[in-house]
Every structure is written in C-alpha cells, then in structure tokens.
From TrEMBL:
PANTHER family: UREASE ACCESSORY PROTEIN D (PTHR33643). One of its GO terms (cellular component) is cytoplasm. UreD, UreF and UreG form a complex that acts as a GTP-hydrolysis-dependent molecular chaperone, activating the urease apoprotein by helping to assemble the nickel containing metallocenter of UreC. The UreE protein probably delivers the nickel. One of its GO terms (molecular function) is nickel cation binding. InterPro entries: UreD. Belongs to the UreD family. Its main location: cytoplasm. Keywords: Chaperone, Cytoplasm, Nickel insertion. Required for maturation of urease via the functional incorporation of the urease nickel metallocenter. The lineage of its organism: Bacteria, Pseudomonadati, Pseudomonadota, Gammaproteobacteria, Pseudomonadales. This is Urease accessory protein UreD. It is found in: Cytoplasm.
Amino acid sequence: MTVFERIEPAHNSGHRFDAGRHWAASIALGFDARPDGSNTATRMTHVRHKGPLRVQRPFYPEGRHGCCHVYLLHPPGGLVSGDALSIEARVGKDSHTLLTTPAAAKLYKADSHGVAWAQHTLLKVEQGGILEYLPQETLAFDGSRGEQTTTIELEAGARCIGWEILALGRPASKLPFVSGHLEQKFRLLMDGRPLWLERQLMDPNHARFKGHWGQGGATVQATLWVVGLDDEAGAIEELREALPESHRWAVTRRRGVVLLRYLGHERNEAWALCQKAWELIRPRLTGQPASVPRIWLT
C-alpha cells in the first residue's frame, strides 16, 4: 500500500514553508538471481516505498532469463523547495538490472525563502552483479536550489554502467539559468575503496560558470561511466571511432573507470551521444546487445 507522508514544517534561515505542499519520498529496491528451471533469473525481491516514489512491475524485454528492466516513477514529475527524495537499490550476486525513468526530472525555482530540495541515490552491486543506471535527463529551471548526491558501492567482480545528464534553464522559452545554486556529489567505490569522487557547484554568479577553464557558459552537461570492462582501451577506441566527432565530448579512463563527458548546449545531442555510447559498450560489458527500454520511445 502506498503511504503519503507530509514533511513537518522546517526552518531555513529563520523562515518556514508550507509543509502541506512538500513531500518526503523514499524507495528501496532489491534484486536477486533466483533458480528458474535449469537457469537463473533476476527477480525484484524487495520493494519498500513511502510517498510519491514507486516502481512499475518489472519488465523482461530480453526474455525471462535476461535483464530485469525497472522504471522509477515520481508522479509529481519534479522537485520544489523542501522536497526530499531518497532512492536505494541493491543488485544481488549474479543478477542483472536496468533502472531508468519514464520522463525527464524537473528541478523547479526555489520559493521566496530560498528553501532547497534534496535528492540522494545509493546503488549497491554485489559480486557478479550488473547494474545499468540510465535515468532520463534532469532539467534545472532558473532559480532552482538543491543538492544531488549519487553513491555507487561495488563489490569486486561487480559491473556497472550509468549516466547523468543535466540541462540548465529553458533556452527555448528564453529563460536561461541565471540564478540558483546546485551542488552535485558523486562517489564510486569498489570494496569501499574510492575509484572516482567528484563534487561540483553550479552557480551562475561564480566565475567558474562562464570561465573557459570551467563550465564555459555551457547549459548542458553529461557524464557516462563504466566499471568492469575487460578491455577498457578497446572500448575507448571503439567510442572514438563510432561517435560523431566533436569538441563537445571526450572519453578517458581512470582507475578502472571509463568516463565519457559532454559539455555543450544541446540536450538532444547529449542524450543521443550517451545512448549511442551505451549501445556500443553494453555488449562488451554484459555480453548482450542493447535493448532500448520501451519507455524511451513514448
């Protein structure tokens, strides 16, 4: 049964906000490999949620013994001041899960008191497990204030591919991102050992935002990461040969992590680049061809 919970009135710089209009939502998922005849199959074995954050039933477009596709749903469609989302997923030993979302997430302008929102994601992958974390893009509107954290904890022998795509402002409506404050933190660990730690602030009033040594005025950025490839150099070479040549993206590797970065102004270009890269890398990582989630085509 779905339980909707209201946040108690909070304080921020001496101001209060209307608790009845803000949500705390959380979801925790677990996936495990279960015997199925002479084979095994990944099943969603645990679901616990509170507030407007849930999942649809698992899908198996690659066959009953293939990857378990799950869509994370947030019916409000975006975050406003005071909202707090918590997402956790555990991918068990030798299981294979693909997590995505049905639509772009929206980060709305902060209220008159500047109260922030928060979103925290924790993903754990056990030995032999495979996680594909492929959410649709995040759209940050002018004046949005909040913090996003993503933590991925891998055991030795686990594999993972994922991306984060962020677009700032609404250029088509001539509403650029000229105010607000976003903080993103990313932690990728293997057996508790850091492989990649990153923290970035997006503040239009900071010199980094427009400086060529930083954001360079770009309104769209994307990062795709991969851990667990047998031939990292071969995968990088394939990406460089197959993806459209452009100064807006680059690919490299560091401490067992292959990283593809995009910095530009076209949300569709960033999405197409990441999707194509995933389609190229997935067979190398999982031994299976890419199976595009149906929700991306609607």
